[in-house]
Structures are given as structure tokens and as C-alpha cells.
Amino acid sequence: MENIRETEELQLKDEKVTLTIDERDYTVPQGLTVLEAARMVDIEIPSLCYLKDINEVGVCRVCVVEVEGARNLQASCVYPVREGLKVRTNTERVRRARKTAVSLLLSNHHRECTTCIRNLNCELQNVADNLGIRNIPFTGEMPNYGYHDNNPAIQRDYNKCINCRRCMAICNKIQECYVYSPLNRGLDTVIAPGFKKDLSEVSCIMCGQCVIACPTGSLSEKEHINEVWEAISDPELVVIAQTAPSIQVTIGEVFGMPIGTFVAGKLVTSLRRIGFDKVFATDVTADLTIMEEGSELIERLVDHPEQLPLLSSCCPGWVKFAEHFYPEFLPHLSSTKSPHAMCGALTKSWYAKKYNIPPEKIVNVAIMPCTAKKYEAARPEMECDGFRNVDYVLTTRELGRMIRQVGLDFTNLPDEEYDEPFDQYSGAGMIFGATGGVLEAAVRTAHKLITGKEMLVPDYEDARGQRGLKYGTATFGDKTITIAIAHGTGNAKKALDMFKSGQKKFDYIEVMACPGGCVGGGGQPIFGSRDYKQTSLDYRHNRAETLYNIERGKEIRQSHENPRIKQIYEEFLGEPLSEVSKTYLHTSFIPRGRHPYLYAEKPYKGFKERN
Amino acid sequence: MGIRIEKTEAENFHKLDQIINRYKAQEGMLIRILQKSQEVFGYLPPKVQAYISQEVGIPISTVNGVVSFYSLFSQEPRGKYTIRVCMGTACYVKGAQEILDAVKEEIQIGVGETSMDKLFTLNASRCIGACGLAPVMTINDDVYERLSPADIPSILYGYIKTHKKAKVTH
User: Fold this and answer.
1) How do residues A103-148 score in pLDDT, each as one tens digit?
2) Angle CA A248–A253–A258, to nearest 5
3) Residue A6 catalytic?
4) Which residues of A146-166 are buried (b: 16+ CB within 10 A; e: fewer)?
5) Annotated catalytic residue, options A293, A323, A440, A510
């Protein structure tokens, strides 16, 4: 299967209009806003609250322009183009208005730039710099709302919020979790979960899309860098890093490499130089996930057709979504753990025994594209033999910061190989990082296991043109099943609702909580400062494409052909779905309800609280 | 996982069900439902908001956003009588501040607070649209017009008296 691009091409009408921007005539398609039209012809209009296709509400007033005939300045992000429109983007009046708007925001903003997590990567900082704001004539009240971080994944610093509503827009429109809403009124307005609860207390799935959308440091991942440094500097401990498939194509972006540069070799080198004792590829256990999930598919297909549909469960954000909103589907979720938890479980059991390392001395650090993995690693279920599967999860961004702290010149590092025995992986394991990858890999393996033959590329049709939800069929001998792929939990919601109403059935669905899959994950690098043109969802395709391109060049493309997988099964697990693998590689789920704050609080295990 | 309703709340939640069923089908009725629910419960605790959110199918964050936006809604328990002193422009220039101070002095509570005996809650409200009668104060549904600070003690005493009478007869 090719990675089908959901082209984000606007529904451009054939009609074109000619408008005048800054005394020059331009012909642009009808239906654009002035901001889009200007950016299309390389005229930069600054913006803050605008997020292409997601948040177009005109609340920040930074993108104002002069429109001939209009008395007031107009917000260009919501002003449609029309024939003969005359716009000025750069007059004294416009500059003054923009400066005032940003100065007012800054007057109420806790400007702790040097110690802020988004320092040098902040859109507010960048806009202020572009506008040349040197002093702020207003004194804001600067209320101290403090920050909320009573969860292992995401922290919210209300003092740095500029009320742009981008987090809310992405949560409502793309993820459809409806976590945020503007509370209170006027100057007291905060964009917060209902009752201003912490994210752990509401039906938040910890996907981190709001973190990616946030233009400032108001929303960020909860850093665990210091804990990891402590573990590394302890000579007693064996600190193991494992890297998710998608990190290999995104970590380069932090260091200015083009989007989608494949840097697996440099990644391994940098982790070794940081001081990790071993560097493993999570791709290997991704192959293992495929084996287990594929076998589960076969088991249900052949023996227990009543247990279909099978829902993939390697995305912790999606799992939490199902736990909150679709508890009736929980028995259908595949019980396999996600690859990083499997890798953690195996390092502290099979690997520890094989290489004679006491498991209590092993610290497993997972480098993930994801904030939800931080939460998943802290779930009480993720424990085997009394050891946490994964001790710390770092996002791509945090790893970038660690590499900077060490002072490595990432772009010029030599390439090195992953450590045994988690070093060889198939193409199937790699494409875990992009939407559709898990399902494709599992179906390929299931097909091979049932029929003994390689499978043909399945065809997908877009479900009623909805982006991010696809249906297709796969044939195993005499059985044909319907498969579906959804990314973005909003699309999963559509698929499940249609399933419930009987409109559109499926037998096996893969859901990735983030649009685009892990390559668009909430822990991936943020385009903050100079590139706000790219602050939309487009760039994720380049990352996914690289994964698919590398996959095509791989010798081993099927999970079951991976020699390491064969080795693990021979030496430790026996066969897929055996007793041993049930103990180490499978987990369980609990319904959480939509209003967790009304029930007893569940503490998170395994993470030291921030001091 | 439903919302647990205690036995003591069952009756009120039954009334809430009726309210919700009456307005559920129509769009844009959230504020009406919230208003009626507040009449039943006296205020809108998180549980009631969550229940409404669940039954009407509007996300809880949105419901809470609406509740916290309008000063009409209260998320804290309120007294039997809510005193609203209008602080709109017309009332303000006619001496609303003195009226407010007089109320504060009389029942010894601040703005937004509820008296210890749960009888009065004091609010400073925005313009209530009775500028011709300025300065204006409302106590529940009663409107008091053209006030002077000297009127306050007798008005409040009237409520204390009715409250006591009601207690005796029950």
C-alpha cells in the first residue's frame, strides 16, 4: 500500500479573483482569506491565533490589515478575498495596531523567556521580535493562576496562555475530546478544562496535540530530563534507551535538517554519546506487536468470530479515548501492549537474564514521539515481575534538548548501529510510525500465517471523502474481512459511531490518536518561531513518506521474517499468545467514564513527582 | 460509568430529568435548562453540570464555560435570598456604591459571599435595565427602586421576618 496522501488542497473553485495587496495586483483563487492569499504570494502577515483549517477565529488581532472602504482594521485571517479588493498590509496604522495588540498580550504575560520551555521556539516571542517591540507601555494585572501538572504527561501554565484557543480548536475539531473551553468572562477568561481541573481529572487522552498547537509555553510536555540524567550518571545502573520508529525521521528537524530526513544512525550515535549504555530499536518490538496482534486477529477470525471487530491498541491516546468514551468496545481492543512497553518488559526479563544483568539495575528510557506514552508508562498495568516496564519516557523534543545540553553537533555525527538483540527490524515494524502501518503489517503477517502466501496490496476507499478514515478489504483464503484505518480520534469516533448504528461495519480497525499517526505525534518537534507558515498539519506527510520510502528499501519487510523475532520466540516466549507472552506482552483496560473528576482519583505509579 | 446519585438528591434529579426531557429536543436550550436546574438545586454544582452534559450530549467543558460566563449562574451554594445591587452606570451615579456598602454593613458579608445562616447572598450586578428607577436592587424576584442607604435595614428585616415565620409554621 502506498501511503495515501490526504491532500489538503482547498476546494479551490475555478473562479479567480484579482485583488490589490500593497499597490500590486494579484490573481488568486476565490474562497481564500486575505491572509492565505497574501501568504500565497509571499507577503508575510504576522498571526498568532490562526491555525490553518483548524482555528480561524480572528481573536488575537495580530493579522489586521487595512481594507479600502472599511472603517476599521480587519482581521485578515477571516476576511475573504473578492474581486477588486484593495488591501494594505503594512501601513503605519496597521503596524501601530499590531504593536498595541501584542503589547497588550505581553503586558499580561509572565515573560520568563530565558527559562521558558519554548524559549527561542515561541510564536509570541517571534511576533514581538518581528514587530520590534522594545518597551511595553501598559502594566497588566498579571494574575497568577499557577500551573497544573498533576499528571505524568502534559503541564499547563495558565500564566503563559494568550487565550488564542488553538488548543481548544484542535481538541474539539480534530480529536473531538472537548477538553478545553473558555471559562469565566472578560479579563478573567482562561482556556481550561471544565471546572479548571487538571488534565488527569478530565476525559483528556494525553495525545499532546494541544501542546503542538500552543504558540507559547503554556502547554508543554512534562519534562523528565533531569531524572534521566540522574540515572545516566549513576554508575550502578544500566540505562537503556529505545527509540520509536518515527523518531528516526523527525529528530533531525530539531537541528535544522529538512523535514523527513532519515537519521537513524546519527540518532544511535547521539544516544551513546549522551551516555546510554545500550540503544535499542523499538521497531523490533513493533514487529513483536505485529506477531501478537496478527495472531490475535487470526484467533478471533478462525475461532471466535463473535469477538470481532479487533481494534488496535498500540496507541495509548486512542486506548484512553476508548476507555473514556467507548467502554463498550474495550473487550474488542487487542490486549497486546504497545511496542515500547514490550521492549521494557523484555529488557527486564529475557534480556536481563540472557546478559546476566539484575533487572533492578536496568533503567529503561523510551524516546517516543508522544506525550501519551508518558502517561501509558505510568499506568499501573505496565508492570511485570514488580518492575516498571518503562521507567521514563522522553519526547523527541526532550531528546533534542538533551543532545543540545551535551553539545553534540548532531548533523555531523557518524552513523552507528543499534545494540543487540534489539537491532534488526523489518519494514513492517518501521511503518508503525505512520498511519495505516500497524494494520498493514498485521494483515500481511496474518495472511502469511493463514495462507502461507504473500498478500496483495489492499485497496482503500475514503469513507465518504472524510479525510483520515479509510476502509478496505483483505482476503485470507476463503475469508474476506473489512479493514479500516482512522487517524485523529475524531475520525475513530466517526468510525465507531457508524459501526454502532450499523451504517458501516469493519472487522479490524487501526486507530492512531494523532493525525498522520506517530509522525504527527504530540511529542514531535514543534515549528514555532520563524516557520509559522508551516504551522498546519501538512508537514506530517513528508515525515510519513520517508518512513515508507525507507521501508521499501528494506530487505526484511515482514515481521515474521525478522530473525530477532524468531530468536525471542525460540528463547523466551515460545509462540504468539503463549502463557509467557500473555504475562509479559499483554495488558488490560478499564473503563474511565466521561467525568473522572466525579469518581475517586487514581494515582499514577512509577513517576517521581516534580519538585 | 454513570454519575452516582445519592438518595437525598433523587428527588431533585428527578425534577432535573423532567426539565431536560422538556427542552432536550430543541436546539439552543442549554441556558434555559441551566436556569431551570438552578431553580431546583439553588446552584449548579459540578455533578449537576456533568449530568446535564451527559443527558443533553453537550461536552462538560462547554457547559461549564456557559455556567462560568453568565453571572446569573452560581457554582457555589447560595443563600435563600440573592441580593443583587445594580452597579450599572445610571445606578452608580445615583449612589449604588452607598447602597452596596449599606447592605454589606447590615448583613456583614462581602460581594459574592453568603451569610453564615445561608439566608443572604450578595452580588454586585451589571445593568439590569431599570435605569429609570435608579438606584436599583433586586432580592430574588423583587425589585427595589430609588433606594437610599437608609431604606436597606427595613427591607432586609422584612426578609428575615418572613424567613422566621416560615420556619415556625413548618
Assistant:
1) 999 999 999 999 999 888 888 988 999 899 999 999 888 888 888 8
2) 100
3) no
4) ebbbbbbbbbbbbbbbbbbbb
5) A293
Give B104 to chain A, closest Cα distance, Å: 24
Question: Which chain B residue lies closest to A180 (C-alpha atoms)?
Answer: B61
**Which of B47, B50, B62 is facing A181, going by the closest CB pair?**
B62
- CB count within 10 Å of CB B157 equals 11
| Nearest one of A307, A364, A112 to A217, comparing CA atoms | A112
A residues 169..208 contacting B (CB < 8 A): 172, 178-185, 193-195, 202
Domain CATH for A540: 3.40.50.1780
Q: How far apart are CA A556 and CA A537, in angstroms?
A: 31
With beta carbons less than 8 A apart as the criterion, state whether A165 and A387 touch: no
Known catalytic membership, residue A76 = no
| Alpha-carbon gap, residue A182 to A434, rounded angstroms | 33
pLDDT (tens digit, 9 = 90+) per residue, B83-140?
A: 999 999 999 999 999 999 999 999 899 888 888 888 899 988 888 888 999 899 999 8
Contact A173, A56 (CB under 8 A): no
Residue where the block lists cell 433523587: B10
In a shared domain, residues A386 and A309 = yes
Q: Omega before A421 cis (within 30°)? A: yes
In-domain check, residue B76: no
Host domain of residue A298: 236-585
Instruction: Report the number of distinct structural domains present in chain B.
Output: 2
Same domain, B86 and B62: no
Give A367-424 pLDDT, tens digit per residue. Answer: 999 999 999 998 888 888 888 899 999 999 999 999 999 999 999 999 999 988 888 8
Q: If you count DSSP H runs as helices and E runs as strands, how many of each does chain B have, helices first?
A: 7, 4
CB B85 within 8 A of CB B96: yes
- Residue B2 falls inside a structural domain: no
Q: How many CB atoms lie within 10 A of CB A446?
A: 25
The active-site residue, picked from A334, A426, A559, A581, is A334
| Total tally of structural domains belonging to chain A | 3
- Domain stop point among A199, A222, A245: A222
Do residues B87 and B138 share a domain? yes
- Indicate whether A438 and A349 sit together in one domain: yes
pLDDT at A461: 55
Residues B101, B161 within the same domain: yes
Cell of A142: 498579571
Chain B residues with CB under 8 Å of A497 CB are none
Q: What is the dihedral of CA B92, B97, B100, B104, to 10 degrees?
A: 170
